[in-house]
Structure formats: structure tokens, C-alpha cells
From TrEMBL:
Record lineage: Bacteria, Pseudomonadati, Bacteroidota, Sphingobacteriia, Sphingobacteriales
InterPro entries on file: Cation-dep_OMT, SAM-dependent_MTases_sf, SAM_O-MeTrfase
GO biological process: methylation
Keywords assigned by UniProt, alphabetized: Methyltransferase, S-adenosyl-L-methionine, Transferase
UniProt feature coiled coil, ranges: none
SUPFAM superfamilies linked to this entry: S-adenosyl-L-methionine-dependent methyltransferases
Full protein name: Class I SAM-dependent methyltransferase
Length: 211
């Protein structure tokens, strides 16, 4: 069944809800204008993120790694009517375009877009989070997890992307980057503060529920 990954992806996208016009635009423009468009969450994973957010109905969301804002807007679909989503990215070159996408959405007033180092910005954001999505520098994923786990509400979700690392986590002799991903996965598997599972979606999505 998995021999033709592109065909499977097409099938999955046909059997879930469609992208709205703004998400289609972001998808298209990302592939036209960015050198690494594969960093975009994309249609199917976007629907997964939106579904998880809708189940949690968060009042406060934190996203580390905005890129072009696709996943941000998917997560925002689940926001409480008075909820706030903080998203952080270090690439100031994308700021004007991405802010334009947010302003064009119905969530413009609820999204707080921060540019800078997440490690420095996170402590300036008050309160706990009902949902956290980590999709940035893979070498710092465990650092971000430890920084944030005590700020995730009981029953809240912490999501970490790219935890299968294109299947390289199964290599006999992994490189240093892959070893960081393996270390993260093995550490989280033993952490009693969370319920956990990896969804084999695209490059792997770790879903952790705070006890």
C-alpha cells in the first residue's frame, strides 16, 4: 500500500476536507517563491492539525516555527472565540507576506506573530498553553519540550513535527542530526508526564497529551 507514496497522499487529500482558498494560495505561493517549500505542512497534515485543535478548543496556542503561516491558520481553526495563538519565527524576511496572510484570514485579531529567537521570546509570553506545536530547529526540540511541558495545561496537547526524519530514525549508523531526533523520541517515550504516540503522517508527528 505504501509503495506509491504520492498516490497515497493524493488519496488522503481527496478523502479529507478541502483547503480553503487562503490555504490554497499560501500553498501555491510557497512552492513558487520559497527554496524549501517542503517545510510547509500541506493539505493533509494541515487537516490533522486543525482536527486536533478543534478537539482541544484551546484558549491559548503556541507555535514555534511559523514559516509561511499555513499550519498557523490550520491550528487557529480550533481556537476558542476569545483564544489567542502566538507564533514565533526567526526569519524576518517573510514577516510582511506572512502577516498579510494572517490579516486576510478571519483569525487576524487572534494571531500574535513574533519574530526572533523562540528561546528568548517564549519567557515573555504570559500564561499556560492548551496546545503547543513545535516545528522549528530540530536540534532544539527537546530543549523546547522541557522549557514548555510545565506550561501545558492538564489535558492539553504538545505536538512535535518531523520525528521520523524521513525514516532515518531506523538507520543502523545515524548521523548527528538523526541521533538528536532519536534521542528526543526515546526521551519522550519514557516521560511519565505525558501520554504519547507518533502519527506516521508525512515526516512523523509526535502527539503528547499532558496528564
Amino acid at each position: 500500500m505504501l509503495e506509491n507514496e504520492d498516490a497515497l497522499t493524493t488519496y488522503l487529500e481527496k478523502t479529507c476536507d478541502t483547503e480553503n482558498e487562503l490555504l490554497k494560495r499560501i500553498n501555491r505561493e510557497t512552492y513558487l517563491r520559497e527554496t524549501m517549500p517542503h517545510m510547509l505542512s500541506g493539505h493533509f497534515q494541515g487537516r490533522v492539525l486543525a482536527m486536533l485543535a478543534k478537539l482541544v478548543k484551546p484558549k491559548s496556542v503556541l507555535e514555534i516555527g511559523t514559516f509561511t503561516g499555513y499550519a498557523t491558520l490550520c491550528l487557529a481553526e480550533g481556537l476558542d472565540s476569545k483564544g489567542v495563538l502566538h507564533t514565533i519565527d526567526i526569519n524576518e524576511e517573510l514577516e510582511e507576506r506572512v502577516q498579510g496572510y494572517f490579516d486576510a484570514s478571519r483569525f487576524g485579531e487572534q494571531i500574535k506573530y513574533h519574530i526572533g529567537d523562540a528561546a528568548e521570546i517564549i519567557p515573555t509570553i504570559a500564561g499556560d498553553f492548551d496546545l503547543v506545536f513545535i516545528d522549528a530547529d530540530k536540534k532544539r526540540n527537546l530543549y523546547y519540550f522541557e522549557m514548555l511541558i510545565d506550561r501545558v495545561s492538564s489535558g492539553g496537547l504538545l505536538l512535535i513535527d518531523n520525528v521520523l526524519w524521513k525514516g532515518r530514525v531506523l538507520m543502523d549508523n545515524p548521523d548527528s542530526q538523526t541521533r538528536k531526533v532519536i534521542e528526543l523520541n526515546e526521551t519522550l517515550a519514557k516521560d511519565s508526564r505525558v501520554e504519547k504516540l507518533i502519527l506516521p503522517i508525512r515526516d512523523g508527528l509526535f502527539v503528547l497529551r499532558r496528564k
